[in-house]
Amino acid sequence: MSTEKIVIVGGGLAASRTAEQLRRAEFAGDIVIVSDEVHLPYDRPPLSKDVLHKDDHDLAEVTLKPREFYDENNITLRLGSAATGVDTAAKTVTLADGSTVEYDELIVTTGLVPKRIPSFPDLEGIHVLRNYDESQKLRTQAATARRAVIIGAGFIGCEVAASLRKRGVEVVLVEPQPEPLASVLGTQIGALVTRLHRAEGVDVRTGVGVSGVAGENAVQQVTLSDGTEVEADLVVVGIGSRPATDWLDGSGIEIDNGIVCDNVGRTSTPHVWALGDVASWKDATGHQARVEHWSNVAEQARVLVPVLLGKEPPEAVVVPYFWSDQYDVKIQCLGEPEADDIVHIVEDDGRKFLAYYERDGVVAGVVGGGMPGKVMKVRAKIAAGAPISDVLG
Ligand SMILES: Cc1cc2nc3c(=O)[nH]c(=O)nc-3n(C[C@H](O)[C@H](O)[C@H](O)COP(=O)(O)OP(=O)(O)OC[C@H]3O[C@@H](n4cnc5c(N)ncnc54)[C@H](O)[C@@H]3O)c2cc1C
C-alpha cells in the first residue's frame, strides 16, 4: 500500500474514532493526531450536562481513550499544536510553531467554533461553550452566580439552562424564535420544551433578542431587544457555531458552510478527507448536509476509513439520531424531522411526549421526550419510508 502516513487534524470525537477505526482495519502505517487542545480527545455532550452541574465531575470521565490506548496503538499525539495551514501540493500541514508535518493522506476533523456577539464589550461572566476549559470556567462562575441570561434556546442553550437550574441559579432563557428549538423541531415540540423549562422555574422569553450587555469589569445587566433590562451576573451565548476552517483559507480545498465532501468524505482536493461537525457530506438525496451530532461522527468514520484504505464501505441504511438531556427528560430524535413537517403528537403526559413527523405521507422522523423505547421502535419504519398510517395505527 502507498499510504504510509495519515495525519488527522483536530482532536475530538472524529479524530479519536477515525484513528481507532484505522487500526481496527489493520492500517499499519503512521497515524498522527494534531490538536490545538492540550487534553486527550474527549467527549463533548457531557460539557453542558453533568460537567456543568456536578462539582466533582472531572476530565477523566469525559476522556474518550486513555493515553495507553494511543501508545499501544502507535498513534502519535501532537497536542497543544494548532494547524495553521496546509500545502496540498507538498502534502504538508503547518503548525503554529512553524514546524510542518508531512502526510500521504490528510483527514480534517476540526469541528466548530462557537459564534460570539462582536458588539458585546469584553466583560467577565460572558461565556460560550464548546470545549472543556470553557465548561470549567462556566462551572466555576455558576457556583456563585445568582442569575444567568442564556442567549439562544437551541440544544446547548436549553441544556445549560437545565444544568444551571439544577445548581439553583435563576435562569432567563432568551430566544428570538417563537419557541425553543423551533427551527429544528418545529413550534409544536418547541412549545413542549418551553413548558418543561417553565415547570423547572426558567423564565423563558421567546420572540425577543438581546441588544446589549453592560457592567463594570463583570456583566451586570442584559438589555433585550424590546427594551427590557434584566439583571444578570452570568451570560451564556448559545447562538450556534461555524465550521473551524479558517486555517484552510487559501488551501484550495472547497469550503461552503463546512468542507465540501462527497458521500464518503473525500474533499475537492486529492488525499484530503473530512468528517464530523466541520464536514458537509453529500447525503442520500444528493444534497450537501453538515450535521452537528455525535452519532453522525461514528457513522462517517465507519464509511470513510474503509474507502480511504481501498476497501468497500458498509452498506447498512443509517437512520440519523441525536439526543439532548434536559432535567430528567431525554429528548431523542430519530430520522430527519423538519420544522415544517406535519407533527402528530401521539403521547403527552404534561412533561413527557412522543411525536411523529409526516412528510409526503411518509414517517420522516420521531421525536420523544422521556420515551426511549418508543422512539427506537420506529427506526425500521423510518428506514423503510413507511406510510404515516403505519405508525398512527
Ligand atoms: C456542549 C456540547 C454538548 C453536546 N451535546 C450533544 C448531545 O447531547 N447529543 C449529540 O448528538 N451531540 C451533542 N453535541 C455534539 C457533538 O459533541 C459533536 O457532534 C462532536 O463533538 C463532533 O466531533 P468532531 O470531532 O467533529 O468535533 P469536535 O469534537 O469539536 O473536535 C474538533 C477538535 O478539533 C480541534 N481543532 C480545531 N481547529 C484546530 C486546528 N486548526 N488545529 C488543530 N486542532 C483544531 C478542536 O479544538 C477540537 O479539539 C454536543 C456538543 C457540545 C459542544
TrEMBL record:
SUPFAM superfamilies: FAD/NAD(P)-binding domain, FAD/NAD-linked reductases, dimerisation (C-terminal) domain. Pfam families: Pyr_redox_2, Reductase_C. Keywords: FAD, Flavoprotein, Oxidoreductase. GO terms for molecular function: oxidoreductase activity, acting on NAD(P)H. GO terms for cellular component: cytoplasm. Gene3D superfamilies: 3.30.390.30, FAD/NAD(P)-binding domain (3.50.50.60). InterPro entries: FAD-oxidoreductase/Apoptosis, FAD/NAD-bd_sf, FAD/NAD-binding_dom, FAD/NAD-linked_Rdtase_dimer_sf, Reductase_C. Its cofactor is FAD. The keyword Transcription regulation does not apply. PANTHER family: APOPTOSIS-INDUCING FACTOR 1 (PTHR43557), RIESKE DOMAIN-CONTAINING PROTEIN-RELATED (PTHR43557:SF2). This is Pyridine nucleotide-disulfide oxidoreductase.
